[in-house]
Specification:
There is one protein chain. The chain is of the alpha+beta class and 674 residues long. The protein is built from 14 helices and 33 strands. Strand 29 and strand 30 form a beta hairpin.
Length: 674
């Protein structure tokens, strides 16, 4: 056999590529991954930075070569097997695949690739479009939930932060896009073998496909046409096709060819309440029906069982094509589910797949077929899947309406160490811990709890993901603080740092102001760094607020009286004071509301012997003469010695003066004159 072609179709996440490689390797087939080809086209489009939504921009395909060989995809001679699996390519490939220009080019190439040898080709339109005459067609599928779980496990293993619900939603959206696109939509070929891998391992799926291919190969080698014979005897329940030869009000007559004429009454034509055949059936119509009764003179036909059988085939087709059907609730099965009717066929709706609200008999529901049992003519259907699809479409619509910069209200639905997930009506976004508040925290639970309704700002929208910020809507600590204070106001804070030029004062969490050294005290000689410490509370006044730079200028001295403003003395003035401190270098004197200094050398006169500390005690009242006064330097130098010496000199001069007045010459020389 020179040529044998296998077409393997299926939805996203069904495992087509990996299974195809395994089967091809086992059977010695050449494997062609058509999805890789479309990914290569998408990669080239992204590299060329074209508008992906404009079909006319894909003219670059005329100068592009794509080669799939030995499980490796080459783009213009470059191995791009890894590059085509990037997030960017994955997000854009559905867009590139939808254009007729692209698909025609790829289909032509794919058909040529399958023209010789044993070929196994996988994709999403292989059996229906690319290789409609393939020797074997297989439609590999799995439930959306199973495919989503496989994809979720794969992403988590790669270290990505994802939620299963989001992955499932992406699968549902992808299925919807693939099955509804105008060009080559995803669907099962009529002659394809359906293989559901939901409950099968990769090895089991591989075994099943290999068996199908081998059996077909054997049949093609050994097949011989058998003589076909028509039934010799008509029996009840035989299925026949008859041509309408006569139409009456309540009865029609059909030529059933090799047998005789049969007739069908109105009630056996349809379960609908028809009043007449008139306008419903016409001479020449071909009707597939069943022999209901045979008498000596008549053959009675019925269409009801065939309608039911055809309806069941519609159920089967709905399962294969993933299309919805409408059913009517027949009755509830307590704790298990509901029996529902589809054109005479009883189907089962499990409680797990039913709507959350209670159903009543005769309620109409649109459902999706999950499982079909051909032998028992039964099927399992789901309303939940439809609701999920509707939800997914609503989610997609909501997502498209959201733009970066939008302010949205949502609910905290889940909290992780790295952030919180915020749910809107259909979508959810990630609020990272560093975007919750301006205040840093290692424990997000101190700021948020599940169930909280909060406003957030959309700061990023990419690949169906939303990144959010709450702090972008909150006032900064500076903004919040300055709204509560004003220039000139007295506030309290704690020293958080000592700087060469001043102190940093923490006024509120994450709000600091500068107390410049020049604003600490009126005393320019105040060496406050020697005695203040970090953590000390200080009372300060706000000098200035700078919104642009978020700076706050503070002053301590603005809250203090400057005693030097009341000092109106000059050098030579005599002042009264009290000794407040005795040091090795002299005396500290409280006088005029300020402190003055008497050097040790200016404490005692020459007539006073010993150390100056022996002559003074703290709290002693003293008088001193101003030697030097510099208010701008807070400097007042005093002298007790000078004042005393001046007082002694004045006293002596007064004494001399008094002596001159009261003493005569006779008194002076009385002793000599004797």
């Amino acid at each position: 056999m020179k040529n044998f072609v296998v077409a393997l179709d299926g939805p996203a996440g069904s495992g087509k590529s990996s299974i195809s490689k395994m089967v091809a390797d086992r059977l010695g087939f050449v494997h062609i991954d058509t999805g890789a080809m479309y990914r290569a086209v998408t990669l080239e489009a992204l590299r060329r930075n074209i508008d992906l939504e404009k079909e006319e921009d894909y003219t670059f395909l005329d100068q592009t070569t794509i080669l799939y060989q030995d499980n490796t995809i080459y783009l213009n001679g470059e191995n791009v097997s890894d590059a085509i699996r990037s997030k960017e390519v994955t997000a854009a490939v559905s867009t590139a695949c939808k254009f007729k220009t692209v698909r025609d080019r790829m289909v032509d190439y794919q058909r040529k690739s399958a023209s010789t040898g044993k070929i196994l080709m996988d994709g999403r339109d292989i059996g229906t479009v690319v290789l409609p005459n393939a020797d074997v067609k297989i439609f590999l599928t799995a439930s959306p939930e199973v495919r989503a779980k496989r994809r979720y496990d794969e992403l988590v293993a790669k270290g990505q932060e994802v939620l299963y619900e989001d992955v499932l939603n992406d699968i549902l959206i992808r299925d919807k896009k693939d099955s509804s696109r105008e060009i080559a939509p995803l669907k099962k070929a009529d002659d394809a073998i359906l293989l559901d891998s939901s409950n099968l391992s990769k090895e089991e799926v591989c075994d099943a496909i290999a068996t199908i291919i081998n059996e077909r190969l054997e049949k093609m080698e050994d097949f011989k046409m058998e003589d076909l014979t028509l039934p010799k005897e008509l029996k009840v329940k035989d299925v026949v096709e008859g041509t309408v030869v006569q139409v009456e009000d309540k009865t029609i007559y059909l030529d059933i060819h090799n047998f005789t004429e049969g007739k069908m009454h109105l009630e056996h034509y349809s379960k609908d309440a028809l009043e007449s055949f008139e306008g419903v059936v016409h001479v020449g119509d071909v009707i597939r029906c069943e022999v209901a009764k045979i008498t000596d003179d008549s053959i009675y036909l019925s269409r009801l069982n065939q309608l039911q059988a055809e309806a069941f085939q519609q159920v089967v087709a709905a399962k294969e094509n993933n299309e919805p059907i409408q059913v009517s609730v027949r009755k509830e099965i307590p704790h298990k589910g509901y029996q529902v009717d589809y054109m005479g066929n009883t189907l089962f709706l499990p409680m797990s797949q039913a709507p959350h609200h209670k159903l009543k008999n005769h309620d109409l529901l649109t459902v999706r077929v999950l499982e079909v049992n051909l032998k028992q003519k039964s099927a399992v259907v789901s309303r939940r899947v439809i609701e999920q699809e509707e939800y997914a479409l609503a989610k997609e619509k909501e997502y498209e309406a959201i733009s970066e910069g939008d302010i949205l209200k949502g609910t905290v639905v889940k909290i992780e160490n790295f952030g919180a997930f915020i749910r809107f009506q259909y979508n959810q976004g990630l609020l990272r811990i560093n975007q919750v508040a301006h205040t840093f925290t290692n424990d997000i639970h101190t700021l948020l709890k599940e169930g909280d309704e909060i406003e957030v700002k959309v700061i990023s929208k990419q690949n169906n993901k939303l990144l959010l910020s709450r702090k972008a809507l909150l006032s900064t600590p500076y903004e919040a603080y300055v709204q509560s204070v004003k220039v000139g106001q007295t506030v309290k804070g704690r020293i958080s740092n000592k700087l060469p030029f001043g102190l940093l004062i923490e006024l509120a969490p994450n709000v600091k102001g500068l107390l410049h050294s020049s604003e600490y005290s009126h005393n320019p000689n105040d060496n406050y760094n020697d005695y203040v410490k970090i953590g000390d509370e200080v009372e300060v006044a706000i000098l200035a607020l700078d919104p642009e730079k978020e700076k706050i200028s503070l002053s301590r001295k603005a809250l203090m009286d400057n005693p030097w403003k009341r000092v109106h003395a000059k050098v030579g003035d005599v002042v009264d004071g009290v000794v407040s401190e005795i040091t090795d270098s002299g005396l500290i004197i409280d006088t005029l509301g300020v402190e003055g200094f008497v050097p040790a050398s200016e404490t005692l006169t020459e007539s006073q012997n010993g150390h100056f500390k022996d002559y003074f005690d703290v709290s002693d009242p003293v008088q001193a003469e101003i030697m030097e006064i510099k208010p701008e330097e807070w400097r007042l130098k005093l002298s007790i010695r000078r004042l005393k010496e001046k007082q002694e000199r004045q006293s002596y001069e007064k004494y001399l003066k008094n002596e001159e007045v009261t003493v005569t010459i006779g008194d002076r020389f009385k002793d000599i004159l004797k």
